[in-house]
Amino acid sequence: MTTRTVAGKAFVYLLLAAGTVVFLFPLWWMVAVSLKTADAAQAATVQGGIVGLMPTDPQWNNYADALSHMGANNAGESGRGFRDALANSVVISVLVTLGTVLSSSLVGMAFARMRFRGSRGMFMLMLGTMMLPAQVTMIPLFLLFRNLGWVDTMLPLVVPAFFGSAYFIFMYRQFIAQVPEALLEAARLDGQGWFGIWWHVILPLTRPVTAITAVFTFIGCWNDFLSPLIYLQSDDQATLSVALNSFRNQFGGINKVNLLMAASITTMIPCVLLFLAAQKQFIEGLGKGAVKG
Amino acid sequence: MAAIELTQVSKTYAGDVKAVREATLSFKDGEFIVLVGPSGCGKSTLLRMVAGLETITGGTVSIGGRVVNDLPPKDRDVAMVFQNYALYPHMTVRRNMAFGLLRRRTHGGLAGILFHGAERRAELEAIDRKVLDTARTLGIEGLLERLPRALSGGQRQRVALGRALVRDPQVFLFDEPLSNLDARLRIEMRAEIRELHRRTKASMVYVTHDQEEAMTLADRMVVMKFGVVQQFGTPAECYGRPANRFVAGFVGTPVMNFVDGRVEGGTFISADLRLPLATARWPHMPSGAATLGVRPDQLRVEPGAATGDAVPAVIRAVERLGDRTDVVLAVGNTRLTARVENDERLAEGGPAGVRIALEAAHLFAPGEDGVRLPDALDGR
Q1: Please, which residues 55-74 of chain B have a Cβ atom closer than 8 Å to chain A?
Q2: Which of A25, A43, A105, B213 is the most buried (most CB within 10 A)?
Q3: Greatest distance between any 2 Cα atoms in chain A
Q4: Which long-range contacts (CB under 8 A, 24 or more apart) does B147-153 make?
């Protein structure tokens, strides 16, 4: 191996290591602070700087304390607020993920494989909706859902997911366009209609795209703060992101930062687990060009 | 088993692209029909219209006496074997073969699970037995739990055949099923398909661009060009009595020799040849511009200087094929290809005398698709 190659490799590894540190630092900081006492955590927050690799006396009880204090409405029951928020987050995220996957794959198949008048125009229109910032549509959507009587229910968060997401429709469409037409023809000869083709042939073959869609949608929904804040006004309807914000307000500024960090890390865990479960398909999907034309 | 009738069937795509033009054909029940022609001739389009995978612009398609123009593919009782097999990659061989049958169950779906458990189980067992029997017939019973990606090309083709066979259709449709296989496997599978036809006596329509495949498989063949049926007849008819110059040139290997010239006073005259034509062969001797067509196996080549009435030629190329030799000859500026028995004396660049068996030759009207001029053998 030449000196140039060794130096080149060393440089690349150095860059990667630096990038890793940059990405992991916030997470490590959160974990470290979550295991400190309240005073030590406050001091770390105020003074900034490196807080040390790990606390010498980790306060594991911070996690239990944080969850027991979470949620504005405890109803006198420790942890009730967290459990309600967790349940709401799970239900909404799962329904939204399911709705997005089912609807986006169906619409993507239609754009990729069905020939109908105006399909190209409709596809362009759908892509155009991706250019609209959420802030622009926020008010009209709120007015719509208010007129429907859906405010303070999960419906505004869940129902739109069943009408497809432009970005994921585009991904499915690009991927499904690569599926050989002969497979669909064989399915037609085997007696399948479009729904049968979608269910038996397209969905199984688009597993990598489904993994990407599911992971991105779930994480996006799980972390979504604005929509639950706008539409879920009752305390018992709050999701984890809203409950986390209430927690921060509840304990004010920099007090109990250790508990705040503990609560934050707890809310992250499902997303990490989901990614770990789906990462093989996820990376396969990215590699196979699920996101390229 | 069913007869197929195509009446003035045509297919026009957007932009006025006519893929098939008014094809009228009648396939008998149990016949093995081959649609053959160069790429883009409309043979696959015609097959797909029979299958219901393409809409029919004009005319009618009948299967078993029933007009099927508006019937979806699943209701036409046809099964198709695709060029690239079209096996579902995420399903095992067993499931690939059973898939079409599962759709046709009486007690499928949630209702079957909830209310007709026993009947559903019986149906599934019957399907499983049928799949196993068919797999045994094709010698693939050991592959039932494999996924398609774990199969070789030949195995996949057998599975594709099995998937069609298990459905017991009226008509089997094959869209160039052997074109992705190597030469040896192609010959093997060809024999299997022929054996399958002999055993099932089913109506089969087979598309290929390989005229040799067409000749070996077909009971009758349809030769097509640019969407038009050029000739519909037995392989012997298409080979021995070609309807026009295109069919004559397409069917048969090596390609027929064509020499443009004219017929005057019972003699064929071209720039390099002057050949007296037998009146016994052409009782109504044509006159005027014509093209002479002679099969390579109708030429005799004698190495060395031409003697007697042999036409003097120069050997341009010698291709020794083991059991026979193809010789390319130059008669002036005219190129002729002869297929002869092996002869060590044949040498490139050497002289030769060529004898043309004019009694087996054909005369065509001028032009690429010139019709064959009538001769004494017509009407026999």
Answers
A1: 72-74
A2: A105
A3: 71
A4: B147/B89, B147/B90, B147/B91, B147/B92, B147/B93, B148/B85, B148/B87, B148/B88, B148/B89, B148/B91, B148/B93, B148/B96, B149/B89, B151/B93, B153/B180, B153/B181, B153/B182, B153/B185
What's the start-to-end Cα distance of chain A, in Å? 38
Give ∠ CA B291-B219-B100 in degrees, rounded to 5.
130
CB contact under 8 A, B86 and A200: no
pLDDT in tens, B9-41: 999 998 889 999 999 999 999 999 999 999 999
Q: By C-alpha distance, which of A204, A215, A212 is closest to A273?
A: A215
Q: Which of B132, B2, B5, B175 is nearest to B77 (CA)?
A: B2
Q: Nearest by CB to A190, which of B53, B83, B99? A: B99
Please provide the average confidence, as pLDDT, over all residues in chain A.
86
Does B86 sit within 8 Å of A183, measured CB to CB?
A: yes
List, edge to edge, every strand of the sheet that includes B66-67.
B17-27, B4-13, B58-63, B66-67
ipTM for the predicted complex comes to: 0.84
- Rounded Cα gap, residues B253 and B299, in angstroms: 14
Task: Tell me how crowded residue B230 is: count the other CB atoms within 10 A of its CB.
Answer: 23
Nearest-angstrom CA–CA distance, A162 and A102: 7
Q: State the burial class of residue B137 (Cβ atoms within 10 Å of its Cβ: 0-12, 13-18, 19+).
A: middle
Class of residue B86 by CB neighbours under 10 A (exposed 0-12, middle 13-18, buried 19+): buried
Sheet of B32-36: strand order equals: B78-81, B171-175, B203-208, B32-36, B220-225, B228-233
List the single residue in A180, A204, A205 with the smallest CB-CB distance to B86. Answer: A180
Check whether the bond before A133 is cis (ω within 30° of 0). Answer: no
Q: How many CB atoms lie within 10 A of CB A79?
A: 15
Q: Is the CB of residue A36 less than 8 Å from the CB of residue A55?
A: yes
